[in-house]
Amino acid sequence: MAKATLVSLAESLGVSRQTISNVINAPHRVKPETRLRVEHAIAESGYRPSAAARQLRTRRSMNLGIRMMPVVDGINGSILDRFLHALTEAAQDEGYRLTLFSAATDDDEVRQYEDLLNVADLDGFVLTGTHHGDQRTAWLLDHEIPFASFGRPWSDTEDPFSSRHPWVDVDGGAGTEQATRLLLDQGHTAIGFIGWPAGSGAGDDRRSGWLRALRDGGVLADQLDVEVHDGVPAGARAAEQLIAAGATAVVCASDSLALGALSTFRSRYPAPTTPDVIGFDDTPVAAAVGLSSVAQPIEDAARHIIRVLAHTLSGDAASGRPDKHLLLTPTLAQRFPHPLAGDGWLA
After folding, report:
1. What is the block-wise mean pLDDT of the chain (347 residues), using blocks of 10 residues?
2. Nearest partner of 254 among 283, 214, 233, 226, judged by Cα
3. What's the rounded Cα separation, in Å, for the pair 239 and 236?
4. Rg, Å, the chain Cα set
5. DSSP 8-state class, residue 293
6. Are strands 331-333 and 292-295 parallel, antiparallel or unpaired?
7. CA-to-CA distance for 235 and 241, rounded, in angstroms?
8. What residue stretches are annotated with the HTH lacI-type domain (predicted)?
9. What is the pLDDT of residue 226?
10. Residue 74 has what pLDDT?
11. How many whole angstroms separate alpha carbon 216 and alpha carbon 57?
12. Considering only CA atoms, which of 277, 132, 114 is closest in space to residue 198?
């Protein structure tokens, strides 16, 4: 069978080539019944529009850039892997490709923006790891470069829902609040929190959910909040501090911290019948050892980021515009620790 072309498809349907093009690139311009008929024919024929022709027509490269963030360990790095995989699939569905690049610092990332825009002619960028005073978003806004971020803008004075740029984030505070309420319901009254140093944005958000649940439950949090840099050993040491302060359970800002805390808790207490350590990110390692953890809807976040970026780049001001700012709600995966978690293998 001959390969379907724009011309052959238009002739077989008795419509113009412009109609086929509009169905692919501007479907709102085509009557619904015609659009459905053309879409069905495209699917049946296997027709694929020419990427080169599209680039000449739209003056776009159909390419987006994203920085590969440094991985602290192989545990939390799996979240970035999931996000990148989902982002790649979503971009491909919209006719885009991703250009990956590395940068050691935010300054380096901005320099990479300049180089890539000059050399690779990228259409826009996807940002991750947003934080207070993020110079990357400021640079892109100043230079009017399209972008969307996985992570809201962090500011003590500005409402993120008033931000000039699109973003998608996960409500970390809602996740840790749910985790803390579970522990309260199980009878714990001394629930600690192991998080990152203040000012990290996402870490502060996760800490706030823990505090909210304790205050709503009439429980004090004095001396039960430990700030550390991410990692399994740091989580284990922080758990020792919390146990010494009287904590019987702990909520953590990441699975790496929680895995360290779990090792310490299992060395001090027999395996409980209910979770007493809860992590964040629901990584494969957490599932393997039976660690309860807050699960982020990573795939939903990736799809929406590409959707809103593709809409922005299309210049289509018609109805159907995706939400510019989207805060997704996580879920809690409740599990019971594996017996081996007390043998010190995580320390």
Report:
1. 72 84 75 88 75 48 88 74 94 93 94 88 92 93 94 92 95 98 94 94 96 93 90 96 95 96 88 84 92 96 96 75 95 77 47
2. 283
3. 5
4. 24
5. E
6. antiparallel
7. 10
8. 4-58
9. 96
10. 64
11. 57
12. 132
Distance CA(146)–CA(305), nearest Å, equals 12
Residue 339: phi, psi to the nearest 5?
-55, -30
Q: Which two tokens stand for residue 8?
A: 């052959």
Work out the burial of residue 304: count CB atoms within 10 Å of its CB; fewer than 13 is exposed, 13-18 middle, 19 or more buried.
buried
DSSP-derived 3-state class of residue 247: coil
Q: Which two tokens stand for residue 107?
A: 């300054």
How far is CA 120 from its chain centroid?
Answer: 25
- Reported residue count of the chain is 347
Tokens found for residue 212: 């909210």
- How far CA 69 is from CA of 117, 159, 244, 279, 334, in Å, comes to 19, 26, 35, 21, 29
Structure confidence at residue 346 (pLDDT): 46
Domains contained in the chain, CATH given: 1-41 (1.10.260.40), 63-169+298-323 (3.40.50.2300), 172-296+332-342 (3.40.50.2300)
Buried b (16+ CB within 10 A) or exposed e, 240-273: bbbbeeebbbbbbbbbbbbbbbbbbbbbeeeeee
Cα gap 307→280, rounded to integer Å: 26
Q: Which two tokens stand for residue 22?
A: 């509009």
Answer for the pair 272, 283: CB distance below 8 angstroms, yes or no.
no
The structure's pTM equals 0.79
124: which strand partners? 64
Instruction: Report the C-alpha gap between 177 and 208 in whole angstroms.
Output: 8
pLDDT at 347: 42
- How far does Cα 238 stand from its chain's mean position? 27
